[in-house]
Known about the structure:
Layout: E1 15-16, E2 23-24, E3 27-28, E4 33-34, E5 52-58, E6 61-66, E7 69-73, E8 83-86, E9 107-110, E10 127-129, H1 141-144, E11 151-154, H2 156-161, E12 168-170, E13 176-181, E14 184-192, E15 207-213
Parallel strand pairs: 7-10, 10-11, 11-12
Antiparallel strand pairs: 1-4, 2-3, 5-6, 6-7, 8-9, 13-14, 14-15
Amino acid sequence: MNCYPGSSSHVQSTLLHPRIPLFETTHIKSLLFFTSQFKTPASTMVLTKSSVTITHISTATAIISIDGINFLTDPVFCPAGSEYIYDGWSKAPNLHEWGFTGKPPTATLRSINGPAVQIHELPPIDAVLLSHEDHVDNLDPLGRQLLDGRRVFTTPDGEKNLQPRPGVVGLRPWQTVSANIGGKQFCITRTPCENRNTMSKLVIPDIGYFSSRV
């Protein structure tokens, strides 16, 4: 299904129509994304007002509820004080260019605060938006339990590494998929992004998402 009239399934250039209002109190009016080929004047568009709420839980973990359909981002539910050893630098190419020699360094990640909502307190989760699966502060052992039996949208590497889970879909940058979630139709677009510094992008193919009702 082509989610954006006049566009391909891979969005080449994305912009917000300048006449579309974005925020109205606690609700967000439909956020419509178009390619430059979309020429329909704002005066002829029919906008559907959607109810959107966002509940922040921990780090990058949040519930995005769109018209009663709950998307969970980067599930992390470890209690305060949890510690994990991170050795992701072993995956980075050309570490010597950054001054590292010998065995790649490791780091201990310690959770300072627990989640604002415990995993057993979650509402029904309809789908998961996962930026990347290889960092424990974006997907921890408790969060992995929430992937089973659910639709999960992530990177192609994430799709491979999270198998066997038939509900996991890996998206390329700017790829859009149409999905029926909870009986409602959504378009989900992967958007590229980077972590905070230059070194991080060596090992983290991060992504973000646009999600809109069809």
